[in-house]
Amino acid sequence: MKIETLTYSAEGISFQGYLADPEGSGRRPGVLIAHEAPGLNDHPKRRARMIAELGYVALAADLYGNGRVAQKPEEAPQLMAPLREDVPRLRKHARAGFEALAKLPNVDPKRIGAMGYCFGGLAVLELARMGAPLAGVVSFHGILGTKTPEDAKNIKAKLLVCTGAEDPLVPPEQVAGFAAEMTQAGVDWQVVTYGGAKHAFTNPEANRPPALQYNATADARSWEAMRAFWFELFGKP
Q1: Nearest to 41 by CA among 96, 119, 113, 122
Q2: Hey, where are the domains in the chain?
Q3: What is the distance between the alpha carbons of residues 75 and 72, in angstroms, rounded to a whole number?
Q4: What is the CA angle 132-135-136, rounded to 5?
Q5: 93: which strand partners?
Q6: pTM (2 decimals)?
Q7: How do residues 96-129 score in pLDDT, each as one tens digit?
Q8: N or C: which terminus of the chain carries fewer CB neighbours within 10 A?
């Protein structure tokens, strides 16, 4: 496996992505990974390596630009808030990562998926809502609400949402609203809800009760659901 920093730009901003390449001959499917509120730290980088181990080219995107990462927990909301409030800008930053991945010579641009965690789950769903040519999107404990539900008509991707039954940031009514939004738009979607799981259930470093709590069982089960989803769309490299 080859690991390197992939620098790309948009709107005059330099982004520092983390590329995990399984190497080998021919073009492979690519998977874009969107980070949580703290930024491109160890968790999305580890997931990129895990995706590469499956045989896909993985790019953990830098949504904030210039490789900015929160150094303290209280800094994460400050980094995230401007993009949460400015959805068109969030979409542009996510799209920049998608295009950087699609341009790589060993990536098949017709076989690209995106996955995201927490804030990153919101980011990849908004990327789908803007009509990006994605084959599939996976959200792990991501925010499901949107300011523009009518944009679901633009979605080309199949969707897999993995959410926690006890996530206070993604309550049942938000999940139900998402299901109604996608059904009305005719999207191919599925939601898997994990009993006992709270927000950030996939990240061992994100334990801040009562909202955030790692859940090893939900983490393992959601990863298996994601693997089956990518294998369905892309096959096993």
Answers
A1: 119
A2: 2-234
A3: 5
A4: 95
A5: none
A6: 0.97
A7: 999 999 999 999 999 999 999 999 999 999 999 9
A8: N
